[in-house]
């Protein structure tokens, strides 16, 4: 993740020139257009576009922002599947259904608005996943990357159509790309950016898979960060 961000920022910075004062802008959109392969509409039915979303902040609207940016970047109207990693809880607090509910409601809204086809979760234990499945008002989780796959080998009847996958990316965004590491990449890649003011909000990893052959056609990351005013 760090290498991808650093390469993108370095190339982007070299193209815009060093005379631009980034600190005067409200939004910096750091994109290298030729590095993103938009999907040909004629090939869309042959491809599956999946995403895994890591969130830091407590704002559930980040989910919509991430999905909209991914759709725009790839040139598609909707994503076929989205797995969400629960945002971190405060120290001494356990992850609970009440904490997950606003995020799941946002995912349900995106399914109902046809921005996502199927939704799932990551890093939940069996008890919490069952609670979420039974509570979900419009869309139950259709797949998961659980903490322990063995817990799901004997699942209750209401999870019989549920898909369980091995989780090769356990952990939250801070473990994949901590704040200090992100700021270090910014400092090394862009001059005069005051990197210590920037905090990552979410990271989305996408994959475009050829359905008939099960191979990855393209993959990449989209990240959003905010700049503290202080």
Automatic annotation (TrEMBL):
Protein name in UniProt: GCS light chain
Keyword Hydrolase annotated: no
Gene Ontology BP annotations: glutathione biosynthetic process
Highest rank taxon of the organism: Eukaryota
Ubl conjugation recorded as keyword: no
Involved pathway(s): Sulfur metabolism; glutathione biosynthesis; glutathione from L-cysteine and L-glutamate: step 1/2
InterPro entries: Gclm, NAD(P)_OxRdtase_dom_sf
Keywords: Glutathione biosynthesis, Ligase
Protein family membership: Belongs to the aldo/keto reductase family. Glutamate--cysteine ligase light chain subfamily.
Single GO cellular component term: glutamate-cysteine ligase complex
Listed GO MF terms: enzyme regulator activity; glutamate-cysteine ligase catalytic subunit binding; ligase activity
Subunit: Heterodimer of a catalytic heavy chain and a regulatory light chain.
Family matches, as SUPFAM superfamilies: NAD(P)-linked oxidoreductase
Record organism: Dryoscopus gambensis
């Amino acid at each position: 993740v760090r290498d991808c961000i650093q390469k993108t920022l370095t190339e982007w910075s070299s193209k815009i020139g060093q005379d631009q004062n980034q600190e005067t802008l409200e939004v910096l959109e750091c994109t290298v257009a030729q590095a993103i392969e938009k999907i040909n509409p004629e090939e869309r039915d042959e491809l599956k576009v999946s995403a895994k979303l890591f969130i830091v902040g407590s704002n559930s609207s980040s989910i919509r922002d991430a999905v909209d940016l991914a759709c725009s970047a790839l040139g598609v109207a909707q994503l076929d599947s989205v797995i969400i990693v629960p945002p971190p809880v405060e120290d001494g607090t356990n992850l609970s259904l009440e904490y997950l509910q606003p995020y799941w409601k946002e995912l349900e809204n995106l399914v109902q608005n046809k921005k996502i086809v199927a939704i799932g979760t990551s890093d939940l234990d069996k008890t919490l996943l069952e609670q979420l499945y039974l509570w979900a008002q419009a869309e139950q989780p259709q797949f998961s990357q659980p903490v322990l796959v063995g817990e799901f080998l004997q699942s209750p009847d209401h999870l019989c159509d549920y898909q369980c996958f091995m989780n090769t990316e356990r952990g939250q965004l801070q473990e994949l790309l901590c704040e200090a590491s992100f700021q270090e990449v910014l400092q090394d890649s862009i001059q005069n950016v005051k990197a210590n003011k920037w905090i990552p909000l979410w990271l989305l990893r996408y994959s475009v898979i050829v359905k008939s052959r099960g191979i990855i056609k393209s993959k990449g990351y989209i990240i959003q960060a905010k700049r503290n005013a202080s």
